[in-house]
Amino acid sequence: MSSIHTTSDPESLRDLAVRVAAEAGELAAEGQAGVTVLDTKSSPTDIVTKMDRATEDLIRSRLLAARPDDAILGEEGGDESGTSGVRWVVDPIDGTVNYLYGQPDWGVSIAAEIDGTVVAAAVNVPRRGEMYEAVLGGGSRRNGEPLQAPPAVPLDRALVATGFGYFSERRRQQARVLLEVAPLVRDIRRGGSAAVDLTGVAAGRCDAFYERGLHPWDWAAPGLVATEAGVRVGGLHGGPPANDLVIAARPELYDALDALLAPLGADRD
């Protein structure tokens, strides 16, 4: 891991992301038992554990050892500049509340951007024994096997995953939206990790996903995995994914879910 790489082809970036995500996932899994809250961020429910920071520190050190001129945007460590044109977007433990409570649905997400476009990704879900990887234009894989999302289903037969924010007013609005969505779909799932939910759409564990309040580290890596598996990942009215709203589904179902969410104010608090 200490050898320095100068090439920036997406396949080599993907391979590095997979290696680092595997090591980071092992560290986080070993540290899950007995972990406690270290700090809070935007609200008392927006927590950080010592393992979030330790895992991100490991990821940063490994990436910079291999590619010292790259930039890194991490959930815990902020944005570091670089000169190579490559930026890594890192979420060391997506699903920290699940992690704190000993639940299995959390993941390590590492994506590589070139000039602002995500070109390579790895998402490690250690407790499920799953490593997802993707290269822009090169497809997605789960544990080395090609990954293709199932065909779209009608909205009324869709299992839809979602998540909630950390502020009480946002949660109230999200609950109001959910009251309107729930009767019109097969069922709702709230898993607690956008990385697990987005890769879950790619893997067919749910048909669609939407959530307000996500950040680039939440969707960069799993979003590419989903996109390369045939899922459309974007925002409201078909725009790009954004903090306002992220939607993911097969294209036909995406359009139906987008049309349902827009008049409900799913992108507003």
List the helices and strands and how they pair.
Blueprint: H1 10-30, E1 37-40, E2 47-49, H2 50-66, E3 71-74, E4 78-80, E5 86-94, H3 96-100, E6 107-114, E7 117-125, E8 130-135, E9 139-142, E10 145-147, E11 159-162, H4 168-181, E12 187-189, H5 194-203, E13 208-211, H6 216-228, E14 232-234, E15 246-249, H7 251-261
Cofactor: Mg(2+)
Keywords: Hydrolase, Magnesium, Metal-binding
Organism: Nocardiopsis lambiniae
Précis, in short:
Keywords: Hydrolase, Magnesium, Metal-binding. By secondary structure, this protein is an alpha+beta fold.
Please explain how this structure is put together.
The strands form 3 sheets. Strands 4-3-5-6-7-8-9-10 form an 8-stranded mixed β-sheet. Helix 1 runs antiparallel to helix 2. It has 2 domains: 10-147, Fructose-1,6-Bisphosphatase, subunit A, domain 1 (Fructose-1,6-Bisphosphatase, Chain A, domain 1); 155-264, D-Maltodextrin-Binding Protein, domain 2, CATH 3.40.190.80. Helices cover 34% and strands 26% of the residues. The N and C termini lie far apart (44 Å). It is α+β, with helices and mostly antiparallel strands. Strand 8 and strand 9 (139-142) form a beta hairpin. The chain has 7 helices and 15 strands.
Distance between the ends? 44 Å
Task: Tell the overall outline.
Answer: globular
Number of separate strands: 15
Oligomeric description of these chains: single chain
Structural category: alpha+beta
Put simply, the count of helices is 7
Bin the strand percentage.
Answer: 25-35%
Cofactor: Mg(2+)
Protein name: Inositol-1-monophosphatase
Organism: Nocardiopsis lambiniae
EC number: 3.1.3.25
